[in-house]
Every structure is written in C-alpha cells, then in structure tokens.
C-alpha cells in the first residue's frame, strides 16, 4: 500500500485548525453538552484503496454506423427520425423504384427471348436429324438398286453371250428356270410395290422409297422380258434383231446402274447437308443457352439492384443523426442516417501512461453521472500513447438497459479493485487536536469518541488503518459540537457508491 504522506499532513493540518476553532466555540456551551444534537452519519464500508477519481470521458454509442443506399435515386420516403429506436432489418427509407423496375422488366423479356431461341434451335436440330435419317434411307435404297443393276448387267451379259454361242439342252432348261424365277421375282416386287404405293399415298414412306420400289418393279419386269427373250433365243435361235435387243437391254441395265449410283451420290450429299444443318443448329443452341444464362444473370442483378432501393437497418439501436429529406436526390454511398447501439455505451478514459500497468481488461470501473452511478468494465486498452497528452486510452463499456444515459454526456470514472480494499471515511469525520486522531461513532444514540490510526488520503477520504470496522456509523457532519457521551439524533448521509 503506497503512503501519501503530503496529503495526510495537509488533511491533518486542516483538521487541527478546525479542531482549535471548535474548542473555542464549545467552551461557551459547556453547560449544554448533554442536550440531544442532530448529526449526519455515514456507515463504514470496505472500499477500494486504488480508486482513481480524476478521470473523465464522454459517453459514446457502443457501436455506430453510417447507413447509405448502394444505388442512387430520389428518396421516396424516410420512415424514422432522430431519436427513434430501430431493429435490425427494419426499413429506414425508400428510393423511387420506377427506373429499376423497368430494368427488371427488360431483363425478364430478354430471358423469354433467350428461351424462345433455345426452343427454335432444338426444333432445327430435330429437323436436321430427320433429314439425316431420310438421307440414310436413300443411301441404303440406292445401294440396293446398284446391287440389282449389277445383277441385271451380269444376267443380260450372260444371255447375250449364250445367244451368240447357241444353247444346249441344259442351258435351255436353265433359261426356262430363269424365266420362272424372273416371273416370281416380278410377282413379289409387284406386291411390294402395291403396298409401298399405298403407304406413299398415305404419307407413311418417303418419295425416294416409292421411286426406288417402282424402279425395282420396272427392272423386274425387264428381267422377265430378258429371261423370256433369252429362252426364246435358245429355243428358236437368235436373230440379228434379237441380238440387238439383248444388247440394248445390257446398255439399259448399265444405265440403271449409273442412275442408282447418281441417286446414292445425291443421298450422300443430302446427308452431308443435313449434318451441316444439325451442326449449325447445335451451335445456335449453344449461343442461345449462353444468351439465356447471361439473361438470367442480368435478371438477378437487376432484381438485386431493385432490392437496394429499400434501405434496411444493419443493427438494432437508435437514430443518432439524419442527413436527408423526402424527395431529395442522392448518389450511391451518400450518408442517410447515423445509427448507434445505446443499450450499451462506451467511454475512453485518458489514463496516464505511468499508471496503465494497474489497468486490466475485465476490471470493473465505477462511472458517475450527476447523482447516478453505474458499473462498467474495461473492454480494451489501446496499444499506443497519445503524443500530445502522454496518456493511453482505456475503453470502458457500461450497460444502459434503461436508456437513461446518452451519448455526449461527460462521466467521471473510478477504477474498482477487488484485491486492495480498506475502510475509508470522509476527511471531515476525523478530528485531531494535537493528540491521536479520533472520530465519533454513534452507538445506541450516543456519541462515542474513538481513536483511530489513519493512512493515506484517497479521493478526499482517509484510510482508517485501525479503530473502525465495517458497519460502524461515524459522524461526518456536526462532530465539532460533540463531546464524548453526548446524545445524538443521527441522519444517514447519502453517498454515491
């Protein structure tokens, strides 16, 4: 415990002077010492011996923020005013949303257009797929016709060769069999041609398939004629005219092959065009999908921007300041309100750097505002010294549940220590006339002179090292008129703890 002897000497000297004066005055009223005297007393308590009473600071909101719109526009409505309490998420103000609503509508239209483009591209892909399938069927039909033409060419060539050589009985029998086979083949193809014709008339097969079966039917009919001619030649012997006819059939068969090959080439080209169309449609779909995704992003952005025309409170607190009026044009980022949390307040105390080691985060601090006292706690000790004052700022947070303290008010602060306590009494309660200092305790309505041992002077109070205990009542007003044993009427002194 540090001794503050200069302060004690000063206090004791004042007490001596006061006592000397009181001795002169009380000599004239010696005969009235047994009268009941009215005095003011204080109850002795254990208090911190490290209290610091010369610190003060200005109350501030525990947390404060400037709120502003993230977009510009004309203020349509301000819902709160200075001093109003607000909750987190509460609407504070609104901008005219007309322009931003139009942007949202345009974005919605772009989304619909992109969706339509996707559907159109998908339809084109479907059409191209159908074209590829039709071309594949044409290629297959043309290849079948080429194969049939090759067969006819071989058959007619064989007939012509036989015609030129003459026929044997075995060859004549084979020729008859060829006629029968050609007729059977013609009959079968004729039935297929009738069926495909009916399907074609109903639109169930393509024109290429219809033309292909008609060509096969014509070729089958020619095969019958060729087979019959070959048989006739074998039986009757070929004339020059007949040889010419067979030669003509051979040329016709070769022409049919060329026609089938040309049809195949056309079908292949058609397939290539269909594949190219499909690729183009697929690319168009990719572009449409990309446009759709961009349109969705644009829509989200415009909807988000529209939502920013409503300003909501980021915290629960009180409106400390308002910067705008209804109808005013503001830019993005312009200050609209200043909000602060006042259910708790904070104060920065300028602690001399030589005393900062006695301060710890979490310590209790007594804050006094007029006749009100609240207890706060040290929440932060700043890491640097103020170059102008040589002090270090200590932040103290104090509850303000009743909202009866306000930012801007100046409070006095005393640090409360729980490990260095003692009995403190007001300096005016201690009397010294050159002997050992004493106080008057009030015991059962009587003034009892009690000698005490004093220590250091703290905040205009003397530390009583011995002579008093917690709970004793000592006279703090009117002691100069008392004698030991006087009857007293005591009133309790009001103290700010």
TrEMBL record:
It comes from the Bacteria. GO terms for cellular component: efflux pump complex. Residues 423-489 form the YknX-like C-terminal permuted SH3-like domain. SUPFAM superfamilies: HlyD-like secretion proteins. It holds the Pfam family Beta-barrel_RND_2. InterPro entries: Beta-barrel_RND_2, MdtA-like_BSH, RND_pump_MFP, YknX-like_C. Residues 70-334 form the Multidrug resistance protein MdtA-like barrel-sandwich hybrid domain. Residues 104-295 form a coiled coil. Residues 351-414 form the CusB-like beta-barrel domain. Belongs to the membrane fusion protein (MFP) (TC 8.A.1) family. This is RND family efflux transporter MFP subunit. The lineage of its organism: Bacteria, Bacillati, Bacillota, Bacilli, Bacillales.
């Amino acid at each position: 415990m540090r001794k503050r002897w200069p302060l004690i000497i000063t206090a004791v000297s004042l007490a001596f002077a006061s006592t000397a004066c009181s001795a002169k005055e009380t000599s004239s009223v010696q005969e009235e010492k047994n009268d009941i005297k009215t005095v003011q007393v204080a109850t002795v308590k254990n208090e911190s011996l490290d209290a610091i009473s010369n610190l003060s600071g200005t109350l501030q909101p525990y947390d404060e923020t400037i709120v502003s719109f993230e977009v510009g526009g004309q203020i349509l409505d301000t819902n709160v005013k200075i001093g109003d309490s607000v909750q987190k998420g509460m609407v504070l103000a609104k901008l005219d949303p007309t322009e931003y609503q139009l942007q949202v509508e345009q974005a919605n239209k772009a989304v619909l257009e992109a969706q339509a483009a996707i559907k159109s591209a998908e339809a084109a892909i479907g059409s191209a797929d159908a074209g590829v399938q039709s071309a594949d069927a044409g290629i297959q039909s043309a290849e079948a016709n080429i194969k049939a033409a090759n067969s006819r060419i071989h058959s007619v060539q064989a007939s012509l060769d036989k015609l030129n050589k003459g026929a044997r009985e075995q060859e004549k029998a084979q020729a008859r069999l060829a006629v029968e086979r050609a007729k059977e083949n013609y009959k079968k193809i004729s039935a297929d041609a009738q069926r495909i014709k009916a399907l074609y008339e109903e639109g169930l097969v393509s024109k290429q398939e219809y033309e292909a079966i008609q060509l096969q039917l014509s070729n089958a009919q020619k095969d019958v004629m060729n087979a019959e001619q070959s048989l006739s030649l074998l039986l009757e012997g070929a004339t020059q005219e007949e040889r010419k006819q067979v030669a003509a059939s051979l040329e016709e068969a070769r022409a049919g092959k060329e026609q089938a090959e040309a049809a195949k080439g056309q079908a292949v080209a058609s397939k290539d065009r269909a594949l190219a169309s499909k690729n183009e449609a697929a690319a168009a779909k990719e572009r449409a999908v990309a446009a759709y995704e961009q349109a969705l992003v644009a829509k989200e952005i415009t909807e988000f921007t529209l939502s920013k025309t409503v300003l909501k409170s980021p915290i629960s607190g009180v409106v400390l300041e308002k910067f705008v009026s209804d109808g005013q044009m503001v830019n993005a980022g312009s200050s609209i309100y200043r909000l602060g949390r006042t259910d708790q307040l904070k104060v920065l105390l300028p602690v001399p750097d030589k005393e900062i080691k006695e301060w710890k985060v979490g310590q209790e601090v007594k804050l006094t505002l007029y006749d009100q006292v609240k207890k706060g706690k040290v929440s932060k000790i700043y890491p640097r010294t103020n170059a102008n004052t040589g002090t270090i700022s200590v932040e103290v947070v104090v509850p303000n549940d009743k909202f009866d303290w306000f930012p801007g008010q100046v409070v006095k602060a005393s640090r409360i220590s729980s490990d260095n306590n003692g009995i403190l009494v007001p300096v005016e309660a201690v009397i010294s006339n050159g002997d050992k200092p004493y106080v008057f305790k009030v015991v059962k309505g009587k003034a009892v002179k009690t000698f005490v041992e004093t220590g250091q002077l703290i905040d205009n109070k003397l530390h009583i090292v011995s002579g008093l205990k917690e709970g004793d009542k000592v006279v703090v007003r009117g002691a100069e008129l008392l004698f030991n044993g006087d009857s007293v009427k005591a009133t309790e002194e009001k103290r700010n703890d």
